[in-house]
Design a protein that fits this description.
Blueprint lengths: L17 H14 L11 H8 L3 H13 L3 E4 L3 E4 L4 H21 L6 H19 L3 H17 L4 H13 L1 H9 L1 H20 L2 H11 L1 H10 L16
Antiparallel strand pairs: 1-2
Pfam families: FCD, GntR
Organism: Bordetella genomosp. 10
Protein name: GntR family transcriptional regulator
Length: about 240
């Protein structure tokens, strides 16, 4: 089976294939809460929606699984991935490690050109929040964090941040669609910009850490009924 290329940077001008467009559309549906954890992804429905052959839809579903957004369950088929509480905590622990490390590496104070670019992106985010446009909030939020962490100069770290952030898309939908969380995110972005402008690295690291908490906590609060998987049983050693 042909592996689809990763969904390109949202600012990239590179043309996408029809399956890649389907992956991006479904990714947005998941992060914006149009598709919910454990909701089935039915091949026939996707074939009709995206005008794709069955083999192409299966490639799309395989790519969503590779990205950590979907999973295939026996006798059920593909569905939006759900997370047990322990998985959520562990994913966000990893995101915190990666993103706070990037915050420790970015130039602080930031270079004027890089800071101005970040400000321009945040103005787009402000406009999307004011317009109550969740899709553009999502896209401008991604651009903001790509630009922020891209300043760290470590491309491997930046890719890891992107991949782990993407895995939490099914967790984040509650905060992206709720106005109070969107406004909080907006305020925190501006606080990060001011910390970068004034050279307050410790504050920047603390802001990056705190910025992760609302989506994690909202998902855990809304999904208390989900049980952690049983611990693995290891044979006793003599």
């Amino acid at each position: 089976m042909t592996r689809l290329s990763a969904v390109p940077d949202i600012a990239s001008p590179v043309a996408q294939t029809a399956p890649e467009k389907a992956v991006q559309a479904l990714e947005e549906d998941i992060v914006l809460g149009r598709l919910h954890p454990r909701e089935r992804l039915i091949e026939d429905d996707l074939m009709q929606r995206f005008d794709l052959k069955r083999h192409a839809v299966r490639e799309v579903l395989a790519e969503l699984a590779r990205l950590g957004l979907a999973e295939r369950r026996k006798n059920i088929g593909s569905e939006v991935r759900s997370f047990a509480p322990r998985e959520v905590v562990e994913l966000y622990e990893m995101r915190e490690l990666l993103e706070t490390q990037a915050a420790r590496l970015v130039p602080c104070p930031a270079e004027p050109e890089a800071l101005q670019a970040l400000i321009e992106i945040q103005r787009e985010h402000d406009a999307a929040v004011e317009a109550e446009d969740p899709r553009q909030v999502f896209r401008s939020n991604l651009r903001f964090h790509q630009a922020l962490f891209g300043m760290c100069g470590n491309s491997v770290l930046v890719r890891a941040i992107h991949e782990y952030a993407r895995q939490t898309h099914p967790i984040r939908f509650g905060t992206l669609v709720a106005p109070e969380y969107r406004h909080r995110s907006r305020r925190e972005h501006w606080a990060m910009i001011e910390a970068l402008r004034e050279g307050r690295r410790d504050d920047l690291v603390a802001l990056c850490r705190a910025h992760l908490q609302p989506s994690r906590d909202a998902y855990l609060a809304a999904n208390r009924h989900l049980a952690d998987p049983p611990a693995a049983i290891h044979p006793e050693t003599s």
